[in-house]
Design goal:
By secondary structure, the protein is α/β, with parallel strands linked by helices. It has one domain: Carbon-nitrogen hydrolase (Nitrilase/N-carbamoyl-D-aminoacid amidohydrolase, 4-Layer Sandwich), CATH 3.60.110. It contains six helices and 15 strands. The strands form three sheets. A six-stranded mixed β-sheet has the order 5-4-3-2-1-15. Strands 6-7-8-10-13-14 form a six-stranded mixed β-sheet, covered by helices on one side. Helix 1 packs parallel to helix 2. The relative contact order is 0.15. It comes from Halomonas dongshanensis.
Length: 297
């Protein structure tokens, strides 16, 4: 299966940002991609650097203008497209939501970000409510079935949690996908920047290893200022990648360029890998009860 990851900058102007997304998707589809992943909040700047109630005006319902635009694009190109929305679910209730469009089927599913950070420059708890954990209603850590396979979609801060990847794998995900918005504080040292980015790449590759699954990661590029003037802004580090079920890097983007990574995956390798590294077989599920506790005092 040929898959693609789109890496792009973004701006406060939705039309400009969405045009960049569309150009990347079209370029990927022209190279044969049947599954295309866009980055987190690709239609806007990363507005969570500061808290401003007026920014809730950026939010849209799932079937709002951005969603309809992505749906039409996926139908025209006959691809599975994974986009990202600042979702207005109800007055006062907003989510950071990945949405899946499947060719002529239109919008077939969504995933609402489950882990919500709240750190300097990443004040997401002000804007986003975590997704519901309800497998029966296909919410939470539940894969989405598409014409190209069962997608385990997680969003940005979710990528640091092995539990999230494992639960998607246990529910039959055939790929893990991580739309992302992450970068450096310009005041950090070069050594610290290297440690952060290496850790980010390593842990997601490790999710592929631990679950025997390919992993697709899309991150943004470019410097986005803190318009409140309090912080120094974020220098988004790109580094989007695709890796195989043993964590092997199949394609890796640089830290600054707008680009598309197009990779043909051998989907049979996942099962072959699990046969020789049978982590699911040897899990001691009888001994993991304390994982549901916050901490073992």
């Amino acid at each position: 299966m040929t898959v693609a990851v789109v890496q792009q900058p973004a701006w406060p102007d939705k039309a400009k940002s969405l045009a960049a997304s569309e150009a990347g998707v079209r370029a990927a589809a022209a190279q044969g991609a049947k599954l295309v992943l866009l980055q987190e909040l690709h239609a806007t700047h990363y507005f969570c650097q500061y808290e401003d109630p007026a920014l809730f005006d950026l939010a849209e319902p799932l079937d709002g203008p951005t969603g309809r635009h992505l749906e039409v694009l996926a139908r025209e190109l006959d691809i599975v497209l994974v986009g990202s929305l600042f979702e207005r679910r109800a007055p006062g209730l907003y989510h950071n939501t990945a949405v899946v469009y499947d060719g002529d089927q239109g919008r077939i599913g969504h995933y609402r970000k489950m882990h919500i950070p709240d750190d300097p420059g990443f004040y997401e708890k002000f804007y986003f409510t975590p997704g519901d954990a309800d497998a029966e209603r296909k919410e939470g850590f539940t894969p989405i079935d598409t014409s190209v396979g069962r997608l385990g979609i997680l969003v940005c801060w979710d990528q640091w949690y092995p539990e999230a990847a494992r639960l998607m794998a246990l529910a039959g995900a055939e790929l893990l996908l991580y739309p992302t918005a992450i970068g450096w504080d310009p005041s950090d040292s070069d050594a610290e920047k290297t440690r952060q980015k290496d850790a980010w790449t390593l842990i997601q590759r490790a999710h592929g290893v631990a679950n025997g699954l390919p992993v697709l990661v899309a991150n943004r590029v470019g410097f986005e200022p803190d318009h409140s003037g309090v912080g120094g802004g974020i220098d988004f580090w790109g580094g989007s990648f695709v890796c195989g079920p043993q964590g092997e890097l199949l394609a890796h983007a640089d830290a600054a360029s707008e680009q598309q990574l197009v990779v043909t995956l051998d989907m049979a390798r996942g099962e072959h890998t699990r046969r020789i590294w049978p982590y699911l077989r040897d899990r001691r599920i009888d001994a993991y009860g304390d994982l549901t506790r916050r901490y073992r005092d």
